[in-house]
Amino acid sequence: RTAGSSAACGYTFVKGETYLVYADRDEADPMRVSLCSRTALVADAEEDLDFLGKPSQELDSGARRTSKRDEANRKDNCSASPGPTGHTGLGWMLLFLAGATLALRRLAWTSP
After folding, report:
1. Domain region containing 39
2. Of 31, 54, 96, 102, whose CB is crowded by the most CB atoms within 10 A?
3. Are residues 74 and 107 in the same domain?
4. 48 & 73 share domain
């Protein structure tokens, strides 16, 4: 999974190309890749491939190893509605505006 645009650090994959992917994992998102990782076309990743050496186990092209837990997480994360943090930015903005309003009122009361 990657963000939808490069502005959100999303990595643009081209169908048919082969990549060396550096992905992160966490509880909410089983696999995530971003522009900030070293993900690159295999043709441009010679230094990394030399460092990594020969794979200890090779998979068929296009094969993906998944566990039942990964499948369950993927199904749980397929929701069109935002999660509990979906509107966090709006909440912080409202809190900031409320604080600024109170501060301005306090200044108005203490000014001669």
Report:
1. 6-78
2. 31
3. no
4. yes
The tokens 């060396």 sit on which residue? 20
- Give the closest residue to 21 by CA, choosing from 55, 51, 45: 45
Asked if residue 67 and residue 36 are part of one domain, the reply reads yes
Q: Is 19 helix (H, G, I), strand (E, B) or coil?
A: strand
* pLDDT for the residue 81: 43
Does 1 reside within a domain? no
pLDDT tens, residue order, the chain (112 aa): 555 544 446 677 888 888 888 888 777 767 777 777 888 888 988 998 999 888 787 766 655 555 555 555 554 444 444 444 555 677 777 888 888 888 888 777 776 6
- Count structural domains, the chain: 2
**Same-domain status, 39 and 10:** yes
